[in-house]
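Re: weekly structure request thread

Next one in the queue (879 aa):
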Amino acid sequence: MSEETNDPPPILKRKDYGFGKDGRNIVVKANFFEVNTISKFEEFFKYNIEINSTDNIEKEVESEVKRERSDYEKNIRRKVLKKISLKKFQDIIFAYDGGSTLYTTKNLEFNELNDAKPIEIVVEELQNTKYDVTISRSDAVIKLTQLKEYIKGEKFKWDFFSDEAFNVLNSLIHKIGAESQSYTQSGKSSIYNKELKKIIKGGIELWPGWFSAVRPGQGSLFINVNPTFSAFYQSSNLDDFLLQCFQPKYRNLPNEFNNFEMKRINKVLRGLLVRLQHLEPMQPERRIRKLLTTKQAARFKYKPKKDSNETPLGGYFNDKKEKYYKDNNQPRKSTKFFVELMSNEDIKIAWPIEFCKIIEGQRYSNRKLTGTQQGEIILAAKRRPSLNESETIKGAKEILQLQNDPIGIGMKVLPNLTTVDARVLESTDIKYAGKTMKPINGQWNLKNMRFVESGERLEFWHVISFEQNRWMPENEAINFIENLARQCEQQGMNIAKVTRNMPAFQYLQYRGHESVKKAYNDAVKKLNRPPQMILFIIPGEKSPINTELYETIKRVMDTDVGCLSQCVSVDSKRNFRSPQYCANLSMKMNLKLGGVNSNLPEENLRLPNGDEVLFLGADVTHPKDKTGRSICAVVGSLDNQAARYVTKYRDQERSGREEILKIDEMIKEILEEYCEYQQKKKNIKKNEIVLPLSIIMYRDGVSESQFERVLKFELPKIKEACDKFRQGYKPKVIFSVVGKRHHTRIYPINPQNGNEADRNGNCLVGTVVDKKITHPTLNDFYLQSHYANQGTARPSHYTILHDDIKLTVDQFQSLSNTLCYNFQRATSSVSIPSPTYYAHVACTRAKMYLITPNKAQKGSPPKLLKLSEKLKKYPMYFM
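Done, posted below.
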């Protein structure tokens, strides 16, 4: 079978399925503003535009750096175009996407298609920088009238999701905010207010903003508006920034950073734009390549003028620094640090960090945030639903000015949030050993509950503390171990009594992966046999080694020595005596050892005809750099309660595509383990194949623009895997996509009414919306299946792309809601179905197995380590 079929997959149309009816009817508000009139202009002309500084330093910049730092350049180009428009585009309404595309309401009167209009312009507010601008005509004319056809729901093509008419409208609605002096546009759809920024530890600041995008709905267009936050670099001198990165460790910058610190610094600084001070009056902008060690900096020379001699960097700049500090009344301590700058010139350029000022408005990548910074941002961004709703309205009215038609295209937008018919689905029962309980608002308690099934008896285990004795005293650690073992037993785990020597406890100092191997080998010596599990006590999130240590433990234990591991942060020390904390930990341990914590009623997981189902979850995570590898994970249920799962993972070349290239191999392996488990469970012969008659896939991580490609590739691969496993095996398949990366929020009409809202003011758990704001053609819905302890709850977005089983809308919505109650390490319903959640967890875990080549192997791709054979008997090892 070919990798892709040429025939497009059939489109499941909503009109063939209708809307759901089950549940209690309510009305909610959504953060969508309805567009009554799209535009008085029926078409826009498209032009290609290039905007480059005559002092262009971007030619040699790596593509991944350009991509990560592109927002700042886009905003510069917007300022340049605004200056041009005042002279060249009078009486013409235009929209600009910040890149290479310009849309206008009038033809710019090009005679020929290949004509180009070169313009040179000086922008005073950008330090009188000269820019070369070239505008050339495209043969495309964007017609807005086709949007009216789309929203009727009668016609649909897969390229609907990437229709350029949406790009035109989105560029127009962002224009007012993007051109304002008080706001900065970042990404395609978000505008941030720098005047309301909040300082965060480590040299970054949090800017509040608003996301906005035009979305199709049932018979109408809507503008989706949602408050958002993003981290930006503080506009400070580089020496101040580095000092903030390492506070409170350093009161003053050291003479040299260690290797770990240098690696962390250069990850943060690479590609960062700085303004070179001391070169008055120009102060040019340059990008940082890396921070230099003193040894590296000693190799650089400085030549102030063409006819002057080269002098050592330190000697030349020391006097300049002292004079600069004195002239600017800045009592500062000089350092020996220099940064190497990116340059088009053949010679390498280095500059003292004291003379580098970070330029405002550069976004700080989320992947560079420390645990502490992430915690601060999450806390600041958690707004109660009522506040989030009022900020949404403020963003629409005051920032985007949607109701005022500020661009002048004749767009008419209703001023209030859209009201939508919704329903509240019932929660499922949760079954423990001998007891059944009904969740309240998606939550329940483990008190007096025993697990459905204990995993392997835990007799031989070991405890290692990578935290120092003064932070984790031995007596406290031993008390914790005793409390944990006692609680595990109370929850129904089969665990041996804690004795003086079992489990053994020891301190180790972390010195890379060899320290983890030593921990395992020490455990083997003390136990006179391999341990079943090692519990690691590791430094808290504020520690610079927290993430590296955790990932090293998982990588070595999972792929090298083949032993179960459980990590506990010293941050949790205050909870070590808490029965609830120990009970939560026991859930993870029992799962890893092969147990089952809770079950759902089996009838809720079977299809109406009684067929057993194999539930699949799949996810892909992509690297940020071009040399990295994408990680794919597929999980499959083994039992009829969808409580036990097996996971398979692969890596593949980073291509920007979302398809899982080896999904057929992974599903074939899942089917093999499914049959083995079912044969053993039902006590039937090995040659009797027990196969599910239906497969339901909950696919994560697929954007709407990739729906067609993923469906067209993966659906045939799933069916091919079934046929390869057993010729003629043709199960019925549902292929659905679950999305969390969206900005849809729903709010109760009466937040004080307990029949509409929970105590935090969010909609009730189980609220489902499949009308008005959903897709005009496809069968999709929003389901809020979880309780949000803080902030505004985000519903998940489900789209059914293929259905051989022919479930009704109500049946699929109910099934999806039920699966959200079966995430085995939680005592609450979760926001996405458990197979999708497990796939995400497995993907994150497998990413830790990627080994980057050393310098001697430069150019070689990263290597993905295989799971140890010893862990194959523990399918839920990754929990």
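Residues 1-5 have pLDDT under 50 and may be disordered. Residues 454-592 form a domain with the Rossmann fold fold (CATH 3.40.50.2300).
Next request, please.
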